[in-house]
Every structure is written in structure tokens, then in C-alpha cells.
Design goal:
elongated
């Protein structure tokens, strides 16, 4: 198995997108991705502070609204 550089993978991936989607839709697909924002590490700590029972209760409550 040949190990490719990240640059080579990106070039090959974009060629596949262009071949299958066409140039315009390939560009639109690439533009749909964002790098995001915020501080993942800080936010992750906040998510982990939420206890499991509270998360499950919120899920069950939300499900009731869609029945």
C-alpha cells in the first residue's frame, strides 16, 4: 500500500469530485465545509459536566414533542 501525502490525497479527491459532480458542484461542495469556530477543549469540558441522566431526560422530552 502506497502512502500518499496529504497534498496528493487532496488533489486526487478534488479530481474525483470534479469527475462525479462537475466543476461547479465540486466547488460548491468544498465551499460547504467550514473550519468551525470556538474553543473545542473548553466547550468539551462543559459538555462532559452534563450528567447522563439529564441528557437522557432531555432526549425523552424532545421525543414526546415529535410523537
Amino acid at each position: 500500500m502506497e502512502i500518499k501525502t496529504l497534498h496528493e490525497i487532496r488533489i486526487k479527491g478534488f479530481r474525483v469530485l470534479v469527475k462525479n459532480l462537475g466543476p461547479a458542484d465540486a466547488i460548491r461542495f468544498i465551499q460547504s465545509y467550514t473550519h468551525g469556530s470556538g474553543d473545542y477543549t473548553k466547550e468539551r469540558k462543559q459538555w462532559l459536566e452534563t450528567d447522563f441522566d439529564a441528557v437522557m431526560a432531555a432526549i425523552k422530552e424532545r421525543r414526546k414533542k415529535f410523537r
